[in-house]
Amino acid sequence: MHRLRTYTASACIKVLRGNIQRMASIAEKRKHLHKEARVLLELIDKAGRPPLHKLPVKDARKATKAMNRLDGTDATLDGTAKEFAVPVSYNSEGVPITVYRPFSCPTNPAIWIYFHGGGFVIGDRAGSDATCKIIASKANCIVVNVEYRLAPEFKYPACIEDGVAVTRWIMENKQLVGAGSQSIVGVGGDSAGGTISANICHEVPGVDFQVLIYPAVDMTTMYPSRRDFSEGFMLEVETALWFHKHAFKRSDDMRAISAFNRDMISFRKQPPCLMIISDSDVLRDEGVAYAEKLRRANRHVEVMMINGMIHGFYTFPTLFKETCERAYKRTVEFIKAQEDKAGQSNRMAPPAGRL
Question: Would the pLDDT of 250 be above 50?
Fold first, then answer.
């Protein structure tokens, strides 16, 4: 009995030391973070709430909504926000979308279709409302905010099916949403929304541009960033695995949704890409690898690496005021650049019916 108590005490001390070392390592890594990231992580630590992967899905969704309320951004749009239901064969209710259109839009404004993050399990378009309004206003373009189906109620490939359906519908109905026949159409999103967007670009011919914000594009490789920032930097590896458990029926699905695994033939057909990456994020390295593969395929790709930043900042324009201003500015510049290129191409093209 004495030996058992001694062994138990030794095991507890070993675990305690391990926890202290682990927390010390996280604290050391956090020293280089941007102030906005440190403040939010300290708020989360002080709240003492369990991580998402220790919650039932229902409670994780409530926690996500509470996080969105914490940001408290009340963005306004000098324009319209209209609701549509994109018709699909597999769902009589269609796919709900919100279309934001500034009153000052030109005749052929760019259309950016946005997919929210949340590991395919949590989140909704309400959480991206402020971001979509800000980009629409600053870029003077139309932004489409998509309410795609979530797991575990609707597992993969439901999210991709909805994304593809919405993109094709928008491309075929530009004027219905307030754009023009010559409007360019791009896709984008943060985290899981970036994953959906990357897959759409491989599935739907004719997409004009993509903005991928810290996307999960290779779930089959253990990159160094997955180890370096596995805990304590917003998105944790355990949470990512929790998302996977709910979102996928089998392990092969993770390979199928990982756009990095597409062949080079598909990569050579990819539209111009802006990749926005946080340097202190478990998904950092796969984003870099994806951008590099686009380069090898001779595609136009721009990478904005944000130093000292963590996963999830893009849809919190109040909590991450300085960082979001920079990221939104780059997003707007990229969208406008694609518009300019398309305008030049249209001016150079011969009139219809003439060679």
Answer: yes
